[in-house]
Design a protein that fits this description.
The chain has 267 residues and is mainly beta. It is built from four helices and 19 strands. Helix content is 14%, strand content 37%. Strands 1, 2, 5, 6, 8, 13, 14, 15 and 19 form a nine-stranded antiparallel sheet that branches. Strands 7-16-9-10 form a four-stranded antiparallel sheet, with no helix packed on it. A hairpin with a 3-residue loop joins strand 13 (183-189) and strand 14 (193-199).
Length: 267
Protein backbone atom coordinates (compact mmCIF):
# COMPACT_ATOMS: atom_id res chain seq x y z
CA UNK A 1 0.00 0.00 0.00
CA UNK A 2 2.83 2.36 0.87
CA UNK A 3 4.47 1.68 -2.48
CA UNK A 4 1.22 2.42 -4.34
CA UNK A 5 0.88 5.69 -2.46
CA UNK A 6 4.42 6.63 -3.42
CA UNK A 7 3.75 5.84 -7.06
CA UNK A 8 0.54 7.85 -7.12
CA UNK A 9 2.39 10.81 -5.69
CA UNK A 10 5.28 10.61 -8.12
CA UNK A 11 5.85 13.66 -10.36
CA UNK A 12 5.14 12.97 -14.05
CA UNK A 13 8.83 13.24 -14.93
CA UNK A 14 9.72 10.42 -12.51
CA UNK A 15 6.61 8.45 -13.36
CA UNK A 16 7.69 8.25 -17.00
CA UNK A 17 10.97 6.67 -15.87
CA UNK A 18 9.05 4.00 -13.97
CA UNK A 19 6.79 3.32 -16.95
CA UNK A 20 9.66 3.35 -19.44
CA UNK A 21 8.08 5.89 -21.81
CA UNK A 22 9.06 9.42 -22.71
CA UNK A 23 7.33 12.36 -21.08
CA UNK A 24 6.04 13.62 -24.46
CA UNK A 25 4.57 10.22 -25.29
CA UNK A 26 2.91 9.90 -21.87
CA UNK A 27 1.42 13.36 -22.23
CA UNK A 28 -0.05 12.37 -25.58
CA UNK A 29 -1.47 9.16 -24.16
CA UNK A 30 -2.91 10.95 -21.10
CA UNK A 31 -4.30 13.77 -23.24
CA UNK A 32 -5.63 11.79 -26.19
CA UNK A 33 -8.78 13.14 -27.78
CA UNK A 34 -11.90 11.13 -27.04
CA UNK A 35 -13.11 11.69 -30.61
CA UNK A 36 -10.18 9.71 -31.96
CA UNK A 37 -9.46 7.34 -29.10
CA UNK A 38 -5.88 6.90 -30.28
CA UNK A 39 -2.65 7.88 -28.53
CA UNK A 40 -1.52 10.34 -31.21
CA UNK A 41 -3.81 13.23 -32.05
CA UNK A 42 -4.04 14.87 -35.46
CA UNK A 43 -5.28 12.05 -37.70
CA UNK A 44 -7.02 13.57 -40.74
CA UNK A 45 -8.88 10.34 -41.42
CA UNK A 46 -10.02 7.70 -38.93
CA UNK A 47 -12.38 4.88 -39.85
CA UNK A 48 -13.24 2.51 -36.98
CA UNK A 49 -15.44 -0.32 -38.22
CA UNK A 50 -15.93 -1.68 -34.70
CA UNK A 51 -18.29 1.26 -34.07
CA UNK A 52 -20.54 0.50 -37.05
CA UNK A 53 -23.75 -1.51 -37.05
CA UNK A 54 -23.84 -4.73 -39.07
CA UNK A 55 -25.47 -4.94 -42.47
CA UNK A 56 -24.92 -6.23 -46.01
CA UNK A 57 -24.95 -4.48 -49.37
CA UNK A 58 -24.80 -1.06 -47.74
CA UNK A 59 -24.83 1.78 -50.27
CA UNK A 60 -22.19 4.37 -49.39
CA UNK A 61 -24.11 7.05 -51.31
CA UNK A 62 -26.95 6.84 -48.78
CA UNK A 63 -25.13 5.39 -45.74
CA UNK A 64 -21.58 6.72 -45.90
CA UNK A 65 -18.83 5.62 -43.56
CA UNK A 66 -18.15 8.86 -41.70
CA UNK A 67 -14.68 10.35 -41.42
CA UNK A 68 -13.91 10.80 -37.73
CA UNK A 69 -10.77 12.85 -38.40
CA UNK A 70 -10.38 16.60 -38.48
CA UNK A 71 -10.53 17.19 -42.22
CA UNK A 72 -14.15 16.33 -42.92
CA UNK A 73 -15.87 14.36 -45.64
CA UNK A 74 -16.93 10.75 -45.93
CA UNK A 75 -16.63 7.65 -48.06
CA UNK A 76 -19.60 8.19 -50.36
CA UNK A 77 -19.34 5.80 -53.31
CA UNK A 78 -19.53 2.03 -53.61
CA UNK A 79 -21.09 -0.71 -51.50
CA UNK A 80 -19.79 -2.57 -48.48
CA UNK A 81 -20.81 -4.97 -45.71
CA UNK A 82 -20.30 -4.68 -41.96
CA UNK A 83 -20.02 -8.09 -40.33
CA UNK A 84 -19.88 -9.16 -36.68
CA UNK A 85 -16.60 -10.67 -35.47
CA UNK A 86 -14.90 -9.94 -38.76
CA UNK A 87 -11.54 -9.46 -37.08
CA UNK A 88 -11.38 -11.08 -33.66
CA UNK A 89 -14.55 -10.26 -31.75
CA UNK A 90 -15.10 -6.85 -33.38
CA UNK A 91 -17.22 -5.70 -36.30
CA UNK A 92 -15.28 -5.14 -39.51
CA UNK A 93 -15.86 -3.87 -43.01
CA UNK A 94 -16.09 -6.80 -45.44
CA UNK A 95 -15.50 -6.55 -49.18
CA UNK A 96 -16.31 -9.44 -51.52
CA UNK A 97 -13.56 -8.91 -54.11
CA UNK A 98 -16.07 -8.60 -56.95
CA UNK A 99 -18.17 -5.45 -56.88
CA UNK A 100 -17.65 -3.85 -53.46
CA UNK A 101 -15.39 -0.97 -52.48
CA UNK A 102 -15.46 2.41 -50.77
CA UNK A 103 -14.39 5.56 -52.59
CA UNK A 104 -14.42 9.21 -51.60
CA UNK A 105 -13.50 12.48 -53.22
CA UNK A 106 -13.38 14.31 -49.91
CA UNK A 107 -12.53 11.92 -47.07
CA UNK A 108 -8.84 12.67 -47.35
CA UNK A 109 -6.65 14.89 -49.48
CA UNK A 110 -2.96 15.70 -49.28
CA UNK A 111 -0.96 17.97 -51.54
CA UNK A 112 2.09 17.82 -49.27
CA UNK A 113 5.09 15.56 -49.26
CA UNK A 114 4.69 13.36 -46.16
CA UNK A 115 2.11 10.98 -44.76
CA UNK A 116 1.64 7.95 -42.51
CA UNK A 117 -1.16 5.44 -43.08
CA UNK A 118 -2.30 2.56 -40.87
CA UNK A 119 -4.70 -0.19 -41.86
CA UNK A 120 -5.88 -3.21 -39.86
CA UNK A 121 -6.79 -5.89 -42.39
CA UNK A 122 -7.28 -9.59 -42.99
CA UNK A 123 -7.40 -10.96 -46.51
CA UNK A 124 -10.09 -13.59 -47.05
CA UNK A 125 -8.81 -15.14 -50.29
CA UNK A 126 -6.23 -14.50 -52.98
CA UNK A 127 -7.12 -11.89 -55.58
CA UNK A 128 -3.76 -11.50 -57.31
CA UNK A 129 -0.88 -9.05 -57.03
CA UNK A 130 -2.91 -6.02 -58.05
CA UNK A 131 -5.74 -6.30 -55.55
CA UNK A 132 -5.91 -3.11 -53.48
CA UNK A 133 -6.41 -2.45 -49.80
CA UNK A 134 -5.80 1.28 -49.39
CA UNK A 135 -5.26 3.46 -52.47
CA UNK A 136 -5.05 7.19 -53.11
CA UNK A 137 -5.83 8.95 -56.37
CA UNK A 138 -5.00 12.28 -57.93
CA UNK A 139 -8.16 13.42 -59.68
CA UNK A 140 -7.93 13.29 -63.46
CA UNK A 141 -5.10 10.78 -63.59
CA UNK A 142 -5.37 7.31 -65.04
CA UNK A 143 -3.67 5.42 -62.21
CA UNK A 144 -3.52 5.59 -58.44
CA UNK A 145 -0.92 5.76 -55.70
CA UNK A 146 -1.51 2.39 -54.13
CA UNK A 147 -0.05 1.95 -50.65
CA UNK A 148 -1.28 -1.54 -49.93
CA UNK A 149 -1.22 -3.61 -53.08
CA UNK A 150 -1.44 -7.24 -52.01
CA UNK A 151 0.16 -6.25 -48.65
CA UNK A 152 3.70 -6.37 -50.09
CA UNK A 153 3.90 -3.69 -52.77
CA UNK A 154 4.11 0.07 -52.99
CA UNK A 155 3.59 2.36 -55.91
CA UNK A 156 5.91 5.28 -55.31
CA UNK A 157 6.02 8.82 -56.61
CA UNK A 158 8.83 9.40 -59.07
CA UNK A 159 9.71 12.72 -60.69
CA UNK A 160 6.77 15.07 -60.38
CA UNK A 161 3.45 14.26 -58.74
CA UNK A 162 2.51 10.64 -58.34
CA UNK A 163 -0.42 10.53 -60.75
CA UNK A 164 0.64 8.72 -63.93
CA UNK A 165 4.30 9.10 -62.95
CA UNK A 166 4.75 6.40 -60.36
CA UNK A 167 6.78 3.26 -60.08
CA UNK A 168 6.02 0.18 -58.03
CA UNK A 169 8.33 -2.02 -56.04
CA UNK A 170 8.22 -5.25 -54.08
CA UNK A 171 9.53 -4.48 -50.63
CA UNK A 172 12.35 -6.85 -49.70
CA UNK A 173 11.91 -9.00 -46.63
CA UNK A 174 8.12 -8.70 -46.46
CA UNK A 175 5.80 -11.55 -47.39
CA UNK A 176 2.04 -11.77 -47.35
CA UNK A 177 1.02 -12.98 -43.88
CA UNK A 178 -1.46 -15.45 -45.37
CA UNK A 179 -5.21 -15.54 -45.83
CA UNK A 180 -7.09 -15.38 -42.55
CA UNK A 181 -4.20 -13.73 -40.69
CA UNK A 182 -4.90 -10.32 -39.16
CA UNK A 183 -2.22 -7.71 -39.79
CA UNK A 184 -1.42 -4.08 -39.12
CA UNK A 185 0.17 -2.53 -42.19
CA UNK A 186 1.77 0.90 -41.83
CA UNK A 187 3.02 2.97 -44.75
CA UNK A 188 5.18 6.04 -44.19
CA UNK A 189 6.41 8.41 -46.87
CA UNK A 190 8.93 10.99 -45.57
CA UNK A 191 9.68 12.60 -48.97
CA UNK A 192 12.79 10.42 -49.31
CA UNK A 193 11.79 6.85 -48.56
CA UNK A 194 8.57 4.87 -48.48
CA UNK A 195 8.65 2.37 -45.62
CA UNK A 196 6.25 -0.49 -45.01
CA UNK A 197 5.85 -1.85 -41.48
CA UNK A 198 3.91 -5.08 -41.02
CA UNK A 199 2.80 -6.62 -37.73
CA UNK A 200 0.92 -9.86 -37.11
CA UNK A 201 0.57 -11.99 -34.00
CA UNK A 202 3.82 -13.76 -34.91
CA UNK A 203 5.87 -11.28 -36.96
CA UNK A 204 7.00 -7.67 -36.78
CA UNK A 205 9.07 -6.51 -39.73
CA UNK A 206 9.70 -3.58 -42.06
CA UNK A 207 11.33 -2.70 -45.36
CA UNK A 208 12.05 0.57 -47.13
CA UNK A 209 12.61 1.74 -50.70
CA UNK A 210 13.87 5.10 -51.93
CA UNK A 211 11.56 7.44 -53.80
CA UNK A 212 11.49 10.93 -55.28
CA UNK A 213 8.74 13.34 -56.20
CA UNK A 214 5.70 14.48 -54.23
CA UNK A 215 2.51 12.99 -52.89
CA UNK A 216 -0.69 14.51 -54.22
CA UNK A 217 -4.01 12.86 -53.37
CA UNK A 218 -7.61 13.99 -53.78
CA UNK A 219 -9.51 10.68 -53.66
CA UNK A 220 -9.25 7.67 -51.35
CA UNK A 221 -10.30 4.09 -52.08
CA UNK A 222 -10.65 1.09 -49.76
CA UNK A 223 -10.54 -2.52 -51.02
CA UNK A 224 -9.81 -1.58 -54.64
CA UNK A 225 -7.47 0.29 -56.96
CA UNK A 226 -8.04 3.01 -59.54
CA UNK A 227 -6.65 1.91 -62.87
CA UNK A 228 -7.22 3.26 -66.40
CA UNK A 229 -9.83 5.69 -65.15
CA UNK A 230 -12.01 3.24 -63.22
CA UNK A 231 -12.28 1.46 -59.87
CA UNK A 232 -11.08 -2.10 -60.31
CA UNK A 233 -8.68 -4.72 -58.90
CA UNK A 234 -10.97 -5.20 -55.92
CA UNK A 235 -9.84 -7.13 -52.85
CA UNK A 236 -11.62 -9.86 -50.89
CA UNK A 237 -10.79 -8.54 -47.45
CA UNK A 238 -11.85 -7.53 -43.95
CA UNK A 239 -10.81 -4.02 -42.86
CA UNK A 240 -11.05 -3.11 -39.19
CA UNK A 241 -9.53 0.34 -38.85
CA UNK A 242 -7.82 2.99 -40.97
CA UNK A 243 -5.81 5.98 -39.73
CA UNK A 244 -4.11 8.57 -41.94
CA UNK A 245 -1.81 11.40 -40.85
CA UNK A 246 -0.49 14.26 -42.99
CA UNK A 247 2.99 13.77 -41.55
CA UNK A 248 5.73 11.16 -41.35
CA UNK A 249 5.32 10.09 -37.71
CA UNK A 250 8.50 9.45 -35.75
CA UNK A 251 9.12 5.93 -34.47
CA UNK A 252 7.76 6.67 -30.99
CA UNK A 253 4.44 7.98 -32.28
CA UNK A 254 4.14 5.34 -35.00
CA UNK A 255 4.69 2.56 -32.46
CA UNK A 256 2.16 4.15 -30.10
CA UNK A 257 -0.53 3.93 -32.80
CA UNK A 258 0.49 0.40 -33.76
CA UNK A 259 0.42 -0.72 -30.11
CA UNK A 260 -3.06 0.80 -29.71
CA UNK A 261 -4.29 -1.05 -32.81
CA UNK A 262 -2.59 -4.31 -31.81
CA UNK A 263 -4.16 -4.29 -28.36
CA UNK A 264 -7.59 -3.34 -29.69
CA UNK A 265 -7.73 -5.90 -32.52
CA UNK A 266 -5.81 -8.73 -30.85
CA UNK A 267 -2.78 -8.63 -33.12
Amino acid sequence: MANIAKLMGTPIGNFTKVMGVSKSTLNKIMGMGLSLGVPVSGAVLHIDASLLGTGTGINAATTPVSNLGSQGGSFNSGTYDVVASGIGTKNALKFNGTDQHLKSTNAYSNTGTTLTMFIVQQRISDKGNYSGSLACLKAGDADDYDLARNFTHHQLPTTGNMGGQRTFADLPGLTHPGNGVSAINTFKFDNTNCTHYQRTTSTDTNASVASTGSFDCTDTILAARWYSGAVNSRNNIYIGEVLIYNSALNDTDREAVENYLASKWGI
